[in-house]
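TASK: fixed-backbone design
INPUT:
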């Protein structure tokens, strides 16, 4: 199925998991390795060392043999505060969030700013499936087969200038579609940001689907980030604006609680959240009687250290949490 076709399917149409797993085995056997080009790191504040990893090392991060989280849990246990703060509130998005047509503005420090609709944005890009862990700051995690395109491939089209040291992302904030906006739990719109080298890193995915289908609204349709080595809140949903900026941009959670949520938010068992430990996590296990599995140790950079640690060489991760 082409991405164009996938995007036309209603998000509620979820593949039967057993069928999906068989198809996935076949796809994995057929999949050609994507050509990867590592971009150089822009100097930033704090300075980023040049990343030296091979394409093979990067590709080794694209999948895992760990047990996948059940699709029904991936789509029913969510964080999407625009629809409320409860884990089941985001499922309301199915009824109210209109994801087509959808435009994304790209502006700031780039030679070719533009306004794009989804089809334009994805023109010429072949979506690929990647199985990533998503570790939330609250201590739970999931293993999800995402469908998407490398963020770098999209960003390069706008020709960021040397002043583009960071990339800022903004979610839609429409009270008619998002009932949770009446609560000032967050200073809306939801915003996130990455340093340019993080945004250009081959593991950073602009996700358009999961489990082989278009993204359901509650997971951030039609387009969201997935940054697998960072806490889940960096993976901003339903993006309407991307901006190249020179200064570290404000982000929703940092704005709210700067002592608790730093800009970088790399998964790090050695840096506790001020109110709880980050040393362990529980996978969403997915049975009716037992939602969480036993605790397992959390790994530095969520287990993606081989691919990303070089970006933070020389940085004090306790200070830049
Ligand atoms: N993006 C927006 N716009 N609003 C949100 O509330 N929650 C974040 C992130 N992206 C959030 C968001 C948090 S805290 C997490 S853990 C992940 O989305 C959860 O993604 P999932 O529901 O697809 O598992």
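OUTPUT:
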């Amino acid at each position: 199925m082409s991405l164009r076709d996938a995007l036309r399917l209603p998000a509620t149409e979820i593949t039967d998991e057993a069928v999906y797993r068989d198809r996935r085995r076949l796809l994995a056997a057929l999949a050609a390795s994507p050509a990867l080009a590592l971009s150089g790191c822009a100097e930033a504040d704090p300075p980023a060392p040049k990343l030296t990893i091979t394409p093979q090392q990067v590709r080794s991060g694209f999948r895992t043999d760990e047990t996948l989280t059940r699709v029904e849990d991936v789509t029913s246990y969510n964080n999407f505060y625009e629809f409320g703060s409860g884990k089941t509130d985001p499922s309301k998005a199915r009824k109210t969030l209109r994801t087509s047509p959808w435009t994304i503005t790209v502006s700031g420090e780039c030679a070719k700013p533009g306004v794009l609709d989804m089809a334009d944005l994805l023109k010429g890009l072949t979506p690929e499936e990647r199985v990533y862990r998503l570790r939330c700051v609250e201590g739970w995690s999931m293993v999800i087969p995402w469908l998407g395109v490398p963020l770098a491939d999209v960003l390069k089209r706008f020709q960021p200038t040397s002043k583009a040291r960071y990339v800022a992302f903004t979610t839609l904030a429409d009270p008619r579609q998002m009932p949770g906006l009446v609560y000032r739990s967050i200073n809306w719109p939801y915003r996130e940001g990455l340093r340019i080298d993080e945004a250009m890193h081959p593991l950073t995915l602009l996700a358009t689907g999961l489990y082989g289908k278009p993204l359901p609204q509650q997971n951030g349709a039609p387009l969201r980030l997935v940054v697998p080595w960072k806490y889940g809140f960096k993976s901003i949903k339903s993006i309407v604006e991307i901006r190249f900026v020179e200064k570290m941009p404000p982000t929703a959670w940092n704005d709210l609680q700067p002592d608790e949520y730093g800009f970088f938010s790399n998964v790090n068992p050695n840096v506790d959240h001020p109110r709880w430990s980050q040393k362990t996590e529980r996978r969403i296990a997915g049975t009716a009687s037992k939602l969480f599995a036993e605790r397992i140790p959390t790994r530095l950079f969520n287990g993606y250290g081989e691919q990303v640690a070089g970006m933070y060489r020389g940085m004090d991760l306790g200070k830049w949490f």
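COMMENT: Confidence is low (pLDDT under 50) at residues 1-15, 26-43.
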